[in-house]
Amino acid sequence: MVKKLLESSLLILLVSVLSRGAIFILNVFIVRALSPEQYGQFSIIKSTASTLEGVVSGALGPITIKEVAKKDNIDVLGSVFAVNLIFIVSISTIMIVFGNSILEIVNLEADYFSLVLIVLVFATTKGSTMLQNILFGMERYKSSAFSGAFSSVITILIALSIEIDGIDVAVWLVAIYYILDFTIKFLLINSCFNKITSSIFEIMNIFKSTNIFIISMLISSATFWYSRTLLARSEGGFEELAFFDVAFQFLTVIMIITGSTTSAILPMLSGKGGGCRRSEMKLIWTSIIINMVVIAIFSIPLIYFSKNILLIFGSEYYNESTIRLIPVICLVALLFTGNSIFNKYAIGRGKNWIVFLSSSVGCFLSVLYLLDTGIANSIQLANLFIIFYLSSLSVYLIEVYFGKR
Q1: Are 232 and 40 in contact (CB under 8 A)?
Q2: Which of 130, 156, 237, 319 has a 20 to 30 Å separation from 396 between CA atoms?
Q3: Spans of all domains in the chain
Q4: What pLDDT, on the 0 to 100 scale, is given for residue 67?
Q5: Over the chain, what HEC string results?
């Protein structure tokens, strides 16, 4: 089982590096093409879309992997697809109806075009993530890696051949990657979709399973999103947010890679490889070691060569604020990964209430921090991430400790 976890983790690591590598390179092109003020606006648009997508994927992703892993793939695919589609359509509709109010909160001018860009990134990202979770549940990691590689190459070639002269072009480049990735993944499992059906009972069962996860993700995602809007509305404005987002790109890469590699645990705890508690804990510790190695591989060169790496984005982003952020985001990555591992462990064991409790505690302490200090610069925003993930991880560790007694 440990050997299988190692193989699965390495394949998922490859998938994540390919997908996040492409987005990271795209962001380098975009940062260098836009002014800090424009990039800050692009960042808040992308962040709003990512928050919406994160709520749905955070709630449905683990359940999708778990359900596809423990049941006949054909039986559950239709229902999983239907539930995701319902969420995509519902959230897109809400965004269109209440879009002006949301744009006002994030300090953007209320115009229909900005709204369309947010919905576009949300829908394309969610579609791609949904199919990736289905492939992970099937343990078809090579198929997902192929899709990521092909989409990355095509999107980067497009970025090299055009001029990025505005926020709209930047957003379209991100959307193109996810559209390509979704299309290829869909074609790879199209033979399964040709045979599937879905039932109202199965759909309602998935909805019932995701209720507590949706609330948990709303709590955590809203905390991070609102803290970003506070920074955008501070004296530094979008320029200060741009400095944070440049450093945050490295954190996002690590978070998505380790968040994905920890997903290898779920199929093994969900019917195909689940076993006694001792075996489960062995999987957990193996996953911790694997992901600590991954974090070290990324963090040590990042901290040591931070000055040189930041210059890739342009001289405007080589300043004291961004340099100080690099070691902080590596610490955030460490705490996030611990959260991700024990989150999957709790879901695999059916202890969904722990997921809700950890998010609630993290949110509560983060709100206390906001009330005490506010968010006036990028360092304060990074500190909020530390507070959230440290307190959330503490809840998981307390549950594991007392759960063994």
Answers
A1: yes
A2: 130
A3: 2-403
A4: 67
A5: CHHHHHHHHHHHHHHHHHHHHHHHHHHHHHHHHCCHHHHHHHHHHHHHHHHHHHHHHHHHHHHHHHHHHHCCHHHHHHHHHHHHHHHHHHHHHHHHHCHHHHHHHCCCCCCHHHHHHHHHHHHHHHHHHHHHHHHHHHCCHHHHHHHHHHHHHHHHHHHHHCCCCCHHHHHHHHHHHHHHHHHHHHHHCHHHHCCCCCCHHHHHHHHHHHHHHHHHHHHHHHHHHHHHHHHHCCCCHHHHHHHHHHHHHHHHHHHHHHHHHHHHHHHHHCCCCCCCHHHHHHHHHHHHHHHHHHHHHHHHHHHHCHHHHHHHHCHHHCCHHHHHHHHHHHHHHHHHHHHHHHHHHHHHCCCHHHHHHHHHHHHHHHHHHHHHHCCCCHHHHHHHHHHHHHHHHHHHHHHHHHHCC
- pLDDT tens sequence across 141-180: 777 778 888 888 898 889 888 888 777 888 888 888 888 8
CA distances from 303 to 23, 33, 113, 191, 247 (A): 21, 25, 39, 46, 11
In this structure, what token pair is assigned to residue 185?
A: 């993944």
pLDDT of res. 297:
84
Q: pTM, whole model, 2 decimals?
A: 0.74
Tens digit of each residue's pLDDT (9 = 90 or more) over 313-339: 888 888 777 888 888 888 988 898 888
Conformation bin of residue 197: beta by default, left when phi > 0, alpha when psi is -120 to 50:
beta
- Name the nearest CA neighbour of 362 among 222, 242, 262: 222
Across the chain, which has 405 residues, the per-10-residue mean pLDDT values are 63 69 80 83 80 74 67 63 81 79 69 74 82 77 80 87 82 85 83 58 70 80 85 79 82 71 63 57 78 83 83 81 85 87 78 86 91 82 91 89 65
The CA–CA distances, whole Å, from 274 to 60, 265, 343, 401 equal 20, 9, 16, 20
> In angstroms, what is the C-alpha Rg of the chain?
20
Q: Are 14 and 277 in contact (CB under 8 A)?
A: no
Q: What is the pLDDT of residue 74?
A: 56
d(CA 144, CA 181): 9
Residue 329, phi then psi, degrees to nearest 5: -70, -25
